[in-house]
Amino acid sequence: MNATFRQLRLFLALAERGSVTAAAEACHVTQPTVSMQLRELTEAAGLPLYEQIGKRLFLTAAGEALAGTARAMLDEWLAFEQTLNAMKGLEQGRLRVALVSTAKYFVPRLLGSFCTEHPNIEISLEILNRDGVVARLRENRDDLYIMSMPPPNLDLEQHAFLPNPLVLIASDGHPLKGRRLQIADLSAERFILRERGSGTRLACDAFFSGAGFVPQVRLELGSNEAIKQAVAGGLGLAVVSRHALPARPADDQLTILDVDGFPLQSRWFTLYPRGKRLSPVAAVFLEHLERTALEWSERRESAL
Q: Which residue range or ranges hold the HTH lysR-type domain (predicted)?
């Protein structure tokens, strides 16, 4: 079977985005070019690689096998290019990071200083819910992964780099504001929680179960911003990462309640599959993240 790197890149774009249009946009080529290259690749394989159902394309078994092989080949080639650049004393290459949505509140700030130090490195961020990041981690689609609750069933390298305190919030005018509370004092309150499977929800469920507390759940939402708006509107209490709040929560019409057991102590981790050979760029970024994250956190805490 003969296939070019260009065809493999276009096929991976199709596999990841589910349409010829999206693959063409991602690779900055025309749709006819994508269609022609994929047709030639399918003919070379001798089996259908994808099928169309409605407006979306789905990989066949042969397509799934090719996608895994193509991804491994292109990753190896990218690593080779970055190794050559490192030998030449150049800092060029691409860094791919997948992170859970709550990490968007601080990772871009840490990336800013990294980009200043390494201006020739191209960075791609995928911001998803926890299940989406875990799915990409299983397929080894990125260089590094950032989340607060690493999946226990995967063999991973784990680097803790930043505290992730989870706080209980209410609307700024809530009658419980300013009181010292026990978890039992919240039995009559309604809660707005993150969706099941998220890192915050996993930590909440573990704490509530250990305390023998069953929250009255009014809403489950998949967005920190939506949760904050709902809490500010008086719909209930919520548990969120302190990183998701401004230095002064009152600026968002919120308050942090003083409840025994809170904040829940968690940490942010950088992850990658055990045995994975990090590219030179990924190794440099990992070192930068561990070096600068704690400094950033301490500056933020002093401003609170």
A: 1-60
Q: SS in 3 state form for 156-193?
A: EEEEEEEECCEEEEEECCCCCCCCEECHHHHCCCEEEE
Q: In 4-15, which positions are buried (b, 16+ CB within 10 angstroms) versus exposed (e)? A: eeebbbbbbbbb
What is the maximum span of the chain, computed from C-alpha positions, in angstroms? 71
Q: Which of 204, 225, 208, 194 is nearest to 130 (CA)?
A: 194
Indicate the burial class of 26 (C-beta count within 10 angstroms; 0-12, 13-18, 19 or more): middle
- pLDDT one-digit tens code per residue, 100-129: 999 999 898 888 888 888 888 888 899 999
274 in Cβ contact with 197 (< 8 Å): no
User: Which residues, at least 6 apart from 24, have a Cβ–Cβ distance to it below 8 Å?
Assistant: 30, 31, 33, 34
Q: Give yes or no for residue 90 having a pLDDT over 60.
A: no
DSSP track, 190-253: EEEEEPTTSHHHHHHHHHHHHHT---EEEEEES-HHHHHHHHHTTS-BEEEEGGGS-SSGGGGT
206 closest CA partner among 179, 170, 166, 243: 166
What token pair was written down for 83? 């190794």
